[in-house]
Amino acid sequence: MHLSKLRNWFLASPPIEYAISKLRDLLVGAIKQGPVPQHIAFIMDGNRRFARTHGIETVEGHNLGFEALARILEVCYRSGVQVVTIYAFSIENFKRSKFEVDALMEMARVKLSQMAQHGEILDRYGAKVRVLGRLDLLRPDVLAAVDRAVDMTKNNGDRVLNICFPYTSRDEITSAIRDTVSEYSKPLRSTHSSSSLPRTPFSEDHITQNIRSRTTNGKLEDSSNESDSVSESSTLGEDDGQKPPDRNHVYKSESALSSAATLHLPDQPTKGQTRESTGSEPPVFKSPETITRQTLADHLLTRDNPPLDLLIRTSGVERLSDFMLWQCHENTEIAFLDILWPEFDLWQFLPVLLRWQRRVSKARQNPDAEGNFDGEFQDPSDDSREELVVSSAAKPKSL
Amino acid sequence: MVSKRDRELLRDNIRSRGPKLSATDRENIVKPYLPDPSELPRWPPQRRKKLPRKTPIRTFIKSQIHLITYTFLHIFFGIAVRLVQTYHAVVDRILAIIYYHHRTPELIQKDVKDLDRLPEHLSVILSIRKEDDALPLLMDEVAELVSWTASAGIPVLSVYEKSGTLKSCIPVLHEVITNKLSSYFGSSQQPTLQLFAPHHPIYETRPHGDAPNNCLIVLLLSATDGQETFVDLTKTLAEMSQNGKLSPEDITMELVDAEISEITTQPFQEDSLAAERGKAGSIQIPPQVKPEPDLLLIFGPSLKLNGYPPWHIRLTEMYCTGVNGDGTTGCSDNVEYQGFLRGLWHYAGAQMRFGR
C-alpha cells in the first residue's frame, strides 16, 4: 500500500512525468518510422470489472475508460493511424440495468457536446467523428448531440474516429443487404443502361441479329452462350472478378436459356425481362448478378474506411461479440489482451503494434510466405471471363 | 501524456457534473498537450506563411533519432519474440511428451474429463501447405482432428480450409477419416460419421454393429461459404424484390440468420441418398448442427480469420495455437494433439497443467 503510494508519488513528480512524456513521444515517433496500420478497431471491455475490483462506482469505471480511450487515440493519431473504430455500445447493451444505460447515454451526450464546444481545436487537428449504428434507438437528446458533433466535424481532414454506438455487426450486415436490395429494386430509366456505361464495345442489336440468324441455323447452344457473355462483359464492367467459377457456370446456363427463349418469342414477356439484354420491357432493373462482395462492402457502415488492419480487445475475453464480423474476417490481425480497458496504455499497445509491424514487413519481404492466397483464388474466374470476352470479341470479326 | 495535476482537474470536473470548468478552461488545460500544428501534415495554407520555418537540421536529427529507436525497438522486440517462441516451443514439446493420445480414445477422454465445459461445436482453421503432397497431409490432419474430437465427445466439428480443395474430394476424405477412426476405436465401436459441406450431399457411414454409440458430424467450409454466401443471398433477394415478391423492409436479421444458418446446417439432400437412408431407418436425419461454433481453433502463427464465414462467429471463443508454422523451423506438424488439448483447456478456463 505504502509502496504503491510512493510509486504513484514518484511517477507524478514533475521530472519523471516529463521524462515519461518524452519517452512516449520518442516511442510514438519511432513507430511512425515503420508501417502503421491504417485502421484499428478497439473493443473497450473491462470498465465494469475494473470498477468492481477497485471498489469504485461503475460509472466512474466508464469515466476512467474514457480517459484510456483519449490516451490511446492520441497514440494512434500521432503515429499515423487514419481510422480508429471503437465499440462503445452494443444493441445488446440496452439489456443492462437502466441506471447504467442512462449513465452511459449521459456520458456520451456530455462528451459529444463538450467536444462540439471545442470545434476550433477539432478543426485544426482535422479529426472527423462519425457515429455508426442504429441511431434510431437513441434518446432524442443524445441523438441531437450526436448529430451536432458529426455535423461539425464532417468537413474535417483525414483522421476519422468511428464510434459504434448502438451497433451490432449482424445488424450492420443485414442493413447492408437490405440497402443493396432496395437499391437494386429501384427501376432504372430505360435509356440508363446504355448511357451510364463508359463504353459499349458491341452494339446489342447487331448481336441479337447475329444470334437470331445463327439460332435459325440450329446452333442454339453456343451462340446464345456467346451473346450472354457479351452482354455480361458490356454491362458488368470490371468489378466481378471475385465470382467463383461454378457460380459463373450456373448463371450462364440459366440466362442462356432465358435469353434464348426471349429471342425465339420476342413478343411474350418472359422471365428474362429483368435482364438488360432484353431491355424492351418497361421496368428495367440493374441485374442482380452484378452484386459482388464489393457491392455489399460499399453498403456497410465502414464503407469509406481503409480495410481493418488490427482489432484489439481488452479484458481477456476472446470473442468478437458481434463487432466488425464482416470487416475483420479477411486479413485482420486480432489481438486479445488480458488487461482491463482503463489500464490500457501505450505500454500494452506497443507490443501489439510491434508485432503487427513485424508481420507486415516480413510479408512484404517475401510475399509467398503465408496468407497470400487471394491472387490464386481469383485467378480462375478472371481467366475464364477473359477467355469468354476474347472469344466473343473474335466472333463478330469473323463474320 | 496529461500530467497528474491536470488529470485531477478534469476528473473533478466530470465528478461534479456541473459547469465547473468552462469550455475555454478546458481548452487551456489541454492546450499544452496538443502537438504543434506545424508538425501536422496538412495545415491551413494561410498559417503556413506566418509560421517561422523550422530548422531543417533539428527535424533531420529528430527523424534520425526516431529511425534509430525504431530499429532498436524492433531488434529488441525480435529478440523478445524469439525468446518467447523458444519458451513456448519447449513447453509445447514437454506437453507433447506428457500428453499423447497413443491412438486410444480412453486416454483422450481422461485428458478432457476434468474440464468444466466442452464446446458443443468445435471449429478449426487449417491451412494447406505449398508442397506437392499437401493434400494428403491435410486430409490426414483432418482425420486426426476428427478422431480426437470424437474421442473427446464433441459432437460437431467444422473444418475451414480457405481454398476449398477438401470439398472436391469428399469421398476420399471420408475413407481416410474412416480408416483413422477405425485405428482409434477399432472397427466395432466406431462412431457414426456424417461428413458434408454446404451444397454437397451428405456422406455417411453405415454403422457396423447395432446401437450407434455416438454420432459425429463433420462440416467442411471454405472461403466461398463466407462473404460469397451473402452475395448470393443478396442476389436472390434482389431478384425476388425486383419481381415484386418481397419488399426490402421484409429483410430482417432473423431472415438473414435463418437463411445463412440453413446453408451451413442443412446438408443438401439428394433424393436417392435420402431414400436410401429412409430404408436404413436411421433416426438422425437431418442432422441438427448448432450453427455457431463455441470454440474456434486456429492452427497457425497468428490470429487471423482468413475468410472464415463471418456470420456465426460473433460469440465464438478464439484460440490460436500460435508459435510454430513460421516456415523457418521446418516443423511439419501444425496440427498437434497438445495444441488441440490446449485449446480445450483454454475454453474451459483451465490452466496448463504439467502433471497429471
TrEMBL record, chain A:
Region (Disordered): 183-288, 363-399
Swiss-Prot/TrEMBL GO biological process terms: polyprenol biosynthetic process
CDD domains: Cis_IPPS
Protein name: Alkyl transferase
Domain of life: Eukaryota
EC number: 2.5.1.-
Organism: Aspergillus mulundensis
Gene Ontology terms for molecular function: ditrans,polycis-polyprenyl diphosphate synthase [(2E,6E)-farnesyl diphosphate specific] activity
Keyword Transferase: yes
Enzyme kind, highest EC tier: transferase
From TrEMBL, chain B:
Compartment list: Endoplasmic reticulum membrane
Keyword Membrane: yes
Disordered, as annotated region: 1-24
InterPro entries hit by this protein: Nus1/NgBR (IPR038887), UPP_synth-like_sf (IPR036424)
UniProt biased composition (Basic and acidic residues): 1-15
Pathway membership, UniProt: Protein modification; protein glycosylation
Keywords on record: Endoplasmic reticulum, Magnesium, Membrane, Transferase, Transmembrane, Transmembrane helix
Record field: catalytic activity: n isopentenyl diphosphate + (2E,6E)-farnesyl diphosphate = a di-trans,poly-cis-polyprenyl diphosphate + n diphosphate
Keyword Magnesium: yes
Major location category of this protein: endoplasmic reticulum
GO MF terms, alphabetically ordered: ditrans,polycis-polyprenyl diphosphate synthase [(2E,6E)-farnesyl diphosphate specific] activity
Needed cofactors: Mg(2+)
EC number(s) per entry: 2.5.1.87
SUPFAM superfamilies (alphabetical): Undecaprenyl diphosphate synthase
Family: Belongs to the UPP synthase family.
The protein's name: ditrans,polycis-polyprenyl diphosphate synthase [(2E,6E)-farnesyldiphosphate specific]
